[in-house]
């Protein structure tokens, strides 16, 4: 969704809803009838790609309404985080068929081998719990990649099927479709705790509601076909569990359209929401947020929302150059400068001052003459600036010292976005040092949450994920939660507990 779209969404929510109870009831009703063909068809990971450090589309057209955006952000009411406890009701699943929406969107290499099975392994506790409670059958549904609404064997869940059997140490029946008479028949007849994995949901345009033709034009699914698709998914089981936090922000058919009387959160979903609730609603202080990323304009709502909650904010990564240019007129060379986001820098800094939030910026940088691992590497401080033909791709040792000092002070840490282009070894120093610092903090008993996406990749790449309090499985979902948005996949659950975010 664009920044303008976020603005309109927040404006509508502010005008129409007087309290969270109204937000919850109205959102729940709305999500059940939402036309998913109008939604963006991008994937759940919204974090910047490495190339965005070099070139970003800054012509977003938001300059003309930046003042109104600021006004809306000041009014924006953050909804409570909603969690669900129904999954652990005793005998709730006995003799029932259970549909579990999981997120098995795992990375594959060219040989179709899974390179990181975290998302599969993270769902095992929910599957095993339901089976231990006497479920008649467990039906697992997921997407994988972007097959564009049609069957494409490149995105088959067959590799996931094999890995799932290996992890569970039991047989899993893999079906070649996710809807239809044959699938319904097999699922209805399943018994004795049988586990069934459906084929990729996105092999059907009705899952996302749209696809693109050969020319790149959007094709929308027929609403009647979407209805039939959702009805077929609904016919597969008695109880619905959403354990796919990574797609909870998508109002796709398998997320909001399975119309069963009982819709509950899985153990992974509940764990995700519990951790974010602790951090955002009742954190031990000082509370530190670390934000990287390429463009300020992508993080305006996120930064504004966090400024109402944190004590310290580290701004690093590509967007730091925009802040430094606006606030200090620093020479940044060919480093990323986000003109659209620059319009809101002073507003955000002023809000930080009003809320007594300390902002920590990098003060030195590792530079390069090109975006390449073999680039000529240099060093620059903010006082001297970056030469006109160079770009900053990482922070320097003085910046790391400042970041470590802030991390040492904090009792609660939320990290979203690395400080450098860690994908290129010469520019991974800052990211490695920051990871070491938050791991040390976590080992000292402080709460450290990594908000999915590229930052989760960092923790996994350097073998530190198990040393962090919580590494989220959701990139875009965690971002939207941190921005204060209601997640469609949570709003439709039938039994909820609310935790005030005020």
Please, could you describe this protein's structure?
Residues 1-26 are annotated as: Disordered. Belongs to the DSS1/SEM1 family. It catalyses: (2R)-3-phosphoglycerate + ATP = (2R)-3-phospho-glyceroyl phosphate + ADP. InterPro entries: DSS1_SEM1, Phosphoglycerate_kinase, Phosphoglycerate_kinase_N, Phosphoglycerate_kinase_sf. Monomer. With 502 residues, the chain is α/β, with parallel strands linked by helices. It folds into two domains: 49-77 and 273-486, Rossmann fold (3-Layer(aba) Sandwich), CATH 3.40.50; 85-265, Phosphoglycerate kinase, N-terminal domain (Rossmann fold), CATH 3.40.50.1260. Helix content is 37%, strand content 15%. The protein is built from 20 helices and 19 strands. The strands form five sheets. Strands 4-5-3-2-8-9 form a six-stranded parallel beta sheet. Strands 12-11-10-16-17-18 form a six-stranded parallel beta sheet, sandwiched between helices. A hairpin with an 8-residue loop joins strand 13 (364-368) and strand 14. Helix 1 (3-16) crosses helix 3 (66-75).
């Amino acid at each position: 969704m664009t920044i303008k779209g976020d603005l309109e969404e927040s404006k509508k929510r502010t005008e129409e809803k007087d309290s969270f109870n109204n937000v919850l009831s109205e959102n729940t009703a709305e999500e059940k009838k939402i036309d998913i063909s109008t939604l963006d068809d991008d994937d759940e990971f919204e974090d910047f790609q490495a190339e965005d450090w070099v070139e970003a589309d800054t012509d977003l057209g938001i300059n003309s309404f930046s003042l109104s955006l600021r006004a809306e952000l000041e009014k924006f009411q953050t909804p409570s985080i909603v969690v669900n406890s129904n999954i652990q009701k005793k005998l709730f699943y006995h003799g029932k068929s259970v549909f579990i929406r999981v997120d098995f969107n795992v990375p594959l290499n060219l040989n179709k081998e899974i390179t990181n099975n975290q998302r599969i392994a993270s769902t095992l506790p929910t599957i095993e719990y339901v089976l231990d409670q006497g479920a008649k059958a467990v039906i697992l549904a997921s997407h994988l990649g972007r097959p564009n609404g049609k069957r494409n064997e490149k995105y088959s869940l067959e590799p996931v099927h094999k890995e799932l059997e290996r992890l569970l140490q039991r047989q899993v029946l893999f079906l070649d479709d996710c809807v239809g008479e044959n699938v319904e028949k097999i699922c209805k007849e399943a018994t004795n705790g049988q586990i069934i994995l459906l084929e990729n949901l996105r092999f059907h345009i009705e899952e996302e509601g749209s696809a693109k033709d050969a020319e790149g034009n959007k094709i929308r699914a027929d609403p009647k076909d979407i209805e039939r698709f959702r009805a077929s998914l609904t016919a597969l089981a008695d109880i619905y569990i959403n354990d796919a936090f990574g797609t909870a922000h998508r109002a796709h058919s398998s997320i909001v359209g399975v119309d069963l009387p009982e819709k509950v959160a899985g153990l992974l979903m509940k764990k995700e929401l519990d951790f974010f609730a602790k951090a955002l609603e009742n954190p031990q202080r000082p509370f530190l947020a670390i934000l990287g990323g390429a463009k300020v304009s992508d993080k305006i709502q996120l930064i504004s929302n966090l400024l109402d909650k944190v004590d310290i904010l580290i701004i690093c990564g590509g967007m730091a150059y925009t802040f430094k240019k606006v606030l200090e007129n620093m020479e940044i060379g060919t480093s990323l400068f986000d003109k659209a986001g620059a319009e809101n820098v002073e507003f955000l800094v002023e809000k930080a001052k009003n809320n007594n939030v300390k902002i920590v910026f990098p003060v030195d940088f590792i530079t390069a003459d090109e975006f390449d691992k073999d680039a000529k590497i240099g060093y620059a401080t903010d006082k001297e600036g970056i030469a006109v033909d160079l770009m900053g791709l990482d922070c320097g040792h003085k910046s790391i010292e400042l970041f470590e000092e802030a991390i040492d002070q904090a009792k609660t840490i939320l990290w979203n976005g690395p400080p450098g282009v860690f994908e290129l070894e010469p520019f991974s120093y800052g990211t490695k040092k920051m990871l070491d610092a938050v791991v040390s903090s976590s080992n000292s008993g402080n709460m450290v949450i990594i908000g999915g996406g590229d930052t989760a990749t960092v923790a996994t790449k350097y073998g530190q994920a198990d040393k962090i309090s919580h590494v989220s499985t959701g990139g875009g979902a965690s971002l939207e939660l941190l921005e204060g948005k209601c997640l469609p996949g949570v709003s439709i659950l039938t039994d909820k507990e609310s935790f005030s975010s005020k």
